[in-house]
Amino acid sequence: MNNRTIKRLILLAGLLVSTGMLPAEAGDLISSVRQGDTASVRQLIESGADFNQAGPYGTTPLMFAAMYGWQDIAQMLISAGADINARNQDNGTALMIAAHKGNAALVRQLLSLGATPDIKNRSGATALMLAAHRGHVATVQTLLAGGADINAQDLGGWTPLFFAVNEDHRQVAKLLLEAGANPRLLAKDGSSALELAKRQNDPVLIQLLQRWGVPEEAREN
What DSSP assignment string belongs to 103-145? Predict the structure, then answer.
């Protein structure tokens, strides 16, 4: 999986919606959420605003709250009935956005309120994969505690461990292995996490994976 594929994966999570891409007609609620205006959001909800209203790319108010890290607004929207597992046009969720941002507190909040940890975007990536890719240790721990599938595979066969190894996130890779990640799983192209570490020429990761008993010729699917 090359850098272009990685960038596409992140894009497909719906995480790159810039503030300049939101037209005025997208609605007052989304604008108030983006600004972190709690009082305005409360007033709009009480007056009957559609809290599942979607802006560009199907991005909901809750997704914008996750993007900007507004925990109180996220709570308010969910309490009002916002769909916590709503998906944008690329199957991204609020939990994926919070995980990518490394907001462990918000991830914990969303999980406690019913967010499904293993929803996959169009690339087959989960919130745990996005957190591992970014090296967010606390977020990875939170997702694992919330029941995220540690051995889930995306469309290319990559697991969270692959994403951590690919970015040289040694602490995350160690955490995943200690939590039960299977280092023998192979990507669709037949490569293993160990082979990826060797391509990265990272002696620490190579030693770590070898210490966990990964044979050179790992071929288990």
Answer: -HHHHHHHHHTT--TT---TT---HHHHHHHHT-HHHHHHHHH
